[in-house]
From TrEMBL:
Coiled-coil annotated spans: none
Key words of the record: ATP-binding, Kinase, Membrane, Nucleotide-binding, Repeat, Serine/threonine-protein kinase, Transferase, Transmembrane, Transmembrane helix
Biased composition (Basic and acidic residues): 447-456
UniProt-recorded name of the protein: non-specific serine/threonine protein kinase
Gene Ontology terms for molecular function: ATP binding; protein serine/threonine kinase activity
Gene3D superfamilies xrefs: 3.30.10.20, Phosphorylase Kinase, domain 1, Transferase(Phosphotransferase) domain 1
InterPro entries in UniProt: Kinase-like_dom_sf (IPR011009), PASTA_dom (IPR005543), Prot_kinase_dom (IPR000719), Protein_kinase_ATP_BS (IPR017441), Ser/Thr_kinase_AS (IPR008271)
PASTA domain span: 349-415, 422-486, 505-570
Recorded name of the encoding gene: pknB
Catalyzed reactions per annotation: L-seryl-[protein] + ATP = O-phospho-L-seryl-[protein] + ADP + H(+); L-threonyl-[protein] + ATP = O-phospho-L-threonyl-[protein] + ADP + H(+)
Species this chain originates from: Streptomyces lonarensis
Transmembrane segments: 324-345
Enzyme class: transferase
Residue ranges annotated for the Protein kinase domain, each copy included: 11-276
Amino acid sequence: MNAPTLLADRYELVRQLGRGGMAQVHLAHDRRLGRTVAVKTLLSDHAQDTVFQQRFQREAQAVASLNHPAIAAVYDTGEGEINGVVVPYIVMEYVEGATLADLLERGPMMPEEALRICAGVLRALAYSHEHGIVHRDIKPANVMLTTEGQVKVMDFGIARAMGAGGMTMTATATVIGTAHYLSPEQARGEKVDARSDLYSSGCLLYELLTGRPPFDGESAVAVAYQHVTAEPDLPSSRAHGIASGIDDVVMVSLAKGREERYQTADEMRLDIEAVLGYAPVPGTATQRVTAVGHPVAPPTQGGGGGRAEQRAARSAGGDRRKRGLLVAAGVALVVVCIVAFSSLFGGGDEETFALRDYSGSSISEAAEAVRQDGLTPKTGTARSCGKPEKVVCATDPEVGSQVTEGSTVTLFPSDGTGEIEGAVEVPDVTGEQEDAAMAALREAGLEPVRETRESSEAAAGTVLAQSPEGGEEAEAGSEVTVTVATAPQSGGGGGEQSQDTGSSAAETVSVPDLNGRSVADARQELANRGLAVAEVNSEDGAPPGVVIGQEPAPGAAVAPGSPVTITVSTGPAQVTATPVPDVAGSRSMEATGALMEAGFMPELDHSCMRPRSRASYSNPAGGAPAEAGSTVTVFCESSHHGGPGGHGGDDEDEDD
């Protein structure tokens, strides 16, 4: 057994808790103080990259200055050696619990619980904003709920001090990973402030209530574009039991303009706490509740005075927010009227049924099961869930959700990472006699399934093959298919195979798992089993000539000679260059909108932050070919860069 990694002669790394695009987090033991901690280390790939080092150091400095019960504490920072590479590290408070991303895999939360959690996040943000720190990456994966139910905000990896020059959101991996929670100003590449965190908190609350973020799309750019241009559906239109007052809070927090949103975290939290008094009691989810008439005003900075006096003192700014609440209430009323109208005139007679659990099946098996249930399967992004690769982790909608025939069900496969709960190592029983092989598998906590194949080369009763193979990990209690040799039958076709069921069922052949194998191997395996082969080509990230799908699914029992369709990768799709729109002369907001609509991620130079600024040129330049989704930086006429094609000033234009 390998000795545990010791960092800085003090922190014993026990096991990996998680991994992101920049760093990984380990459960660790502090030998000096005898306590359990979490240690975040920069990935070795980035250890020599000054940009990543600076960002990592910025996180340590940002969080070390914050001391709040709802923010994961930092104990120590430094550099240490891991596998011969010197990497920076941050030692943090170990929080025992689950992230909201983990909890959301079970489905949406009860409104009261969602509001309580969001209020905890807002307390942490109020404290960090008071100390001049904007988080900029509020999302379910960065918020934990401890085993005692306490909220902990984590990962200030892209946090920056308010007022820092040119604090814009660039098209880094951070943006791509958090597009669902970007504020409109982040999506446009504009300066970020505390109200950007409040928009992201609104997105978080929306997902806690409904089980999905307010906007979704095929790409990060498509999602970011919706944050800038589209209005979200009311949460109550996506989930039952959400009071109109909750709709109001969410819609105000998701206002496109910063001035129309809550101005402080305390203001949003106080409105949430006020609405909690009107939230529906479990069991009365169909009841609607009167909306809160006015948002609760935040405490004044100077202290003194009651809440009513504070509201009066800022009534001018509050008028805009009241209009937002009235609009949200009006939209809710329209939705209720439409639902009532469609119910009266035959719009609600479509039969629904509960979505069953497809997790644990391979992606191809689950897709077939979805189709058999009258639904449309779609494959989502692979995720780490502690299951074997290409085994389904979760679905959208969640298990138990009411769906109608033809609805789309997104299947999220495992990427093969994460710890398998109760995992055991599969014994290698190939070449063993049947009785000994079956006993070894049962002793390992696995369930053997016997198949037979005629063989003139191996003695009858010898194990010819097994799946999974020896040495692989499998869940305790899972099945291991064992193929046992039988003596050739006169006139029988070699290679035919059947699975013993204890009855005199007609002879069948078990379809092998061909995913990940070469075309040649797949053809040979199918020929050995007496099955026909059909091929379909598809673009994929896998190397050319590798099987990426099959029909029927692995393990299916079919008649000898049946065709098996294999989907073969032709390699990654060829990237098609798209001409960059010419944004010269456009106002900054128009330029970012044009670039996003064309499929690019815009980034504004600091010269575009001045009033009345207009785009002067971009990099890449207008008309130049560039890869869709890539970054296009816009420079404005006031820029000191003096780039090509500069336009004359238009000071007479109105402000952006």
